[in-house]
Amino acid sequence: MVQSGFSSIVHADLHLHTCFSDGTYTPEELAGHARRCGLKAVALTDHDTMEGCERMAAACQAHGPEFIPGSEITSEFHGHELHMLGYYLDPQNSTLREQLARFQEVRRQRVHDMVDRLNRLRIPLAVETVFALASCRSPGRPHVARALVQGGWCSSLDEAFERFLKKGKPAWAPKFKVPATEAIALIHQAGGLAALAHPGLNHCDEAIPDLAAAGMDGLECFHTKHSTAMTQRYLETAERHHLLVTGGSDCHGMSKGQPLIGSLKVPYECVERLREAMQRRAVEAGFLLAGSRAADPS
Ligand code: AMP
Ligand code: FE
Ligand code: FE
Ligand code: ZN
């Protein structure tokens, strides 16, 4: 039993993907699933994009759940891949929009690289097929995998990863990753809060104190791939470093077998604490702005 210090009987899911990255649900389908699961709040955290947030917000507006616009930014710290979740991001923030567009361009180029490698392996997959299948600005390996299955070259997504797309396999191409400290700064300047996704999957525990010192706000303690012991350990780590606790299912729809939404009970109190922190940050930024104006005679 995890001693989380939370008492909510209502729940949230703060890590979800749609067809605007590598999930299979549309925002409307995802909102419907969230309602049927009885979730009080959800965050959309597609990889390196906020393209689905407007539709998700509209889909949640009338009948809930409460919606938090977010993204999961592919990052690195001392050579290790990390995923940095951003919550309460302003999708209109111009620097964030520019940077996400840059990350998406790099993702598209990587798809070209992977398809080139497959072509050299005598698999005549057309890059247009992958982009048509992805139908979003933030394509990735799962879309290449789906195209390989669709074209009959592989019988499952797992086979596509195992034979071609996993690191070290012949069609794998290196991935651009923004330094985690830059991802945190990018999230902050867009009015958001930064939380390290699924630390249990990245073997990066030693990075957590440094990331906390760099201003990271939260830690995804609850995740479908965290064991109870891991969750307990990350709850303690979060407390030690004064990090907010977040959590989510990391549901990708039907792309990884059963949909995971609703399978994890993240206490709604996590959302209340996140929201309070975001509002505090906004007030402080307002004060700073007012202060700098007062100090500036022009
Ligand atoms: P990318 O960001 O393009 O490198 O793709 C990473 C995505 O591929 C993540 O969402 C992973 O969960 C997904 N992925 C990795 N291995 C597999 C697999 N064997 N089957 C399906 N999806 C996978
Ligand atoms: Fe994914
Ligand atoms: Fe992730
Ligand atoms: Zn994810």
Structural commentary:
This protein is α/β, with parallel strands linked by helices. It is built from eleven helices and nine strands. It has helices at 27-36, 53-61, 94-120, 127-134, 141-150, 157-165, 180-189, 199-202, 208-213, 228-240, 269-295; strands at residues 11-16, 41-44, 66-77, 80-87, 178-179, 193-196, 218-223, 244-248, 266-267. Helix 2 links the parallel strand 2 (41-44) and strand 3. Helix 1 (27-36) crosses helix 2 (53-61). Bound molecules: adenosine monophosphate, fe (iii) ion (FE) (2 copies) and zinc ion. One fe (iii) ion (FE) binds at residues 17, 22, 47, 252.
Summary?
By secondary structure, the chain is α/β, with parallel strands linked by helices. It contains eleven helices and nine strands.
Which helices and strands, and how do they pair?
Blueprint: E1 11-16, H1 27-36, E2 41-44, H2 53-61, E3 66-77, E4 80-87, H3 94-120, H4 127-134, H5 141-150, H6 157-165, E5 178-179, H7 180-189, E6 193-196, H8 199-202, H9 208-213, E7 218-223, H10 228-240, E8 244-248, E9 266-267, H11 269-295
Parallel strand pairs: 1-2, 2-3, 3-5, 6-7, 7-8
Antiparallel strand pairs: 1-9, 3-4, 4-6
Helix pairs in contact: 1-2, 4-5, 5-6
Beta-strand proportion: 15-25%
Helix coverage percent = 40-55%
Residue stretches low in confidence (pLDDT < 50, at least 5 long) are: 293-298
Mean model confidence by pLDDT: 94
Q: Number of helical runs? A: 11
**Helix and strand run:** EHEHEEHHHHEHEHHEHEEH
Largest sheet: 9 strands, mixed
Strand tally: 9
Q: Describe the global form.
A: globular
- The N- to C-terminal Cα distance equals 59 Å
Radius of gyration (Å): 20 Å
Ligand inventory reads:
adenosine monophosphate, fe (iii) ion, zinc ion
Quickly give the structural class: alpha/beta
